[in-house]
Amino acid sequence: SVNATPLTIERGDNKTSHKPLYLKHVCQPGRNTIQITVTACCCSHLFVLQLVHRPSVRSVLQGLIKKRLLPAEHCITKIKRNFSSGTIPGTPGPNGEDGVEQTAIKVSLKCPITFRRIQLPARGHDCRHIQRMGPALPSLCPHLARSKTALLEGLEVDQYMLGILIYIQK
Fold first, then answer.
1. Pairing of strands 155-158, 69-70
2. Count of domains in the chain?
3. Do 147 and 129 share a structural domain?
């Protein structure tokens, strides 16, 4: 029981393990009491209590802006470097293989994952594409192999694109 609320642990499919108990709905701020009572044979049991902190999306985004905001000048330099190296799809390589120099590229203001308008432009630090995604879903990069995950620690917020989004909203 937790705080005098009885709970039953469900057995797993193989009868040797049990399904986890989620205690959030019976816990309260401050001190909580967990009492474990075993009715069957008590040969060997292992009990694990994990405390998990799940910050809100809003607090994660605020932290991302505070810690991972890439200055506009740096963003522009990165875009120019990727254009000249040919790492942006549809642009010529460093030797100008197709003979045509591309000086502009169209970038969508919709997140390629959620298909909603981007509020906070972010992308993986190692990504070479210009397109940004909304960081509310740190998920698979839609431009790379589907196995490439954009982890929260590797996301950066593009101040240059953020300035454009703020200007457009006015």
1. parallel
2. 2
3. yes
Residue-range definition of the domain harbouring residue 34: 1-52
What DSSP state is assigned to residue 110? B
**Whether the model pTM is above 0.90:** no
pLDDT confidence bin for 146, thresholds 50/70/90: very low
Q: Within the chain, where are the H helices?
A: 57-68, 72-85, 159-169
Same domain? For 79 and 156 the reply is yes
List the 122-124 sheet strands across, edge first.
69-70, 155-158, 122-124
Asked if residue 36 and residue 21 are part of one domain, the reply reads: yes
- pLDDT digit string, tens, across residues 41-77: 667 777 788 888 888 878 888 888 899 899 999 988 8
Contact 28, 42 (CB under 8 A): no
CA distance 147 to 125: 16
Structure tokens at 49: 């209590």
Contact 154, 124 (CB under 8 A): yes
